[in-house]
From TrEMBL:
Coiled coil: none annotated. Signal peptide: none annotated. PANTHER family: SLR1406 PROTEIN. This is Heme-binding protein.
């Protein structure tokens, strides 16, 4: 069987992240979730929107993942910087075409060597709960989550 290069996460890892993140959301009784997984190049590797997930959830989830990946920082750190450096974060949003959402729920997915392989964004419930689901998904795929807070 031929092998092809990946840009970070594999499709199997992305699908495992989504399955585990959704399972965590159901376990916690959260609102319907939308999960977006980006590869290291910022491209959508996989995405699912649960039944009942509201209209803009895919864009919000994408923005959480994209913002984290764009700066190489988890969503919690982006949220702190949005408060401390509003001008910079506004400029980032403009440069990113509005796709950077600096709140928890955007989590970097790292390999065992610390290299960023992609990012996960989840939207549907409160940001802190979205983040819990992203972390669970990343860990289930055998990767290390970076939320922007020290481990």
């Amino acid at each position: 069987m031929a092998t092809y290069p990946t840009n970070g996460l594999t499709l199997d890892q992305a699908n495992a992240i989504i399955a585990a993140a959704r399972a965590k959301g159901r376990e916690l009784g959260l609102m319907p979730l939308t999960v977006v997984v980006l590869d290291a190049g910022g491209q959508v590797k996989a995405s699912q929107r649960e039944d009942g997930s509201s209209l803009l959830r895919p864009e919000i989830a994408l923005g959480k993942a994209y913002g984290a990946l764009a700066l190489g920082l988890g969503g919690r750190e982006l949220a702190r910087r949005a408060t401390a450096m509003q001008g910079f974060m506004n400029a980032l949003s403009d440069i990113a075409g509005g796709r950077a959402v600096p709140v928890p729920g955007g989590v970097l997915a790292c390999g065992p060597d610390g290299v960023i392989l992609g990012a996960v964004g989840i939207s549907g419930d409160v940001s802190a709960q979205d983040e819990v689901c992203a972390v669970a998904g990343i860990q289930a795929a055998g990767l290390t989550p970076d939320t922007g807070d020290a481990a």
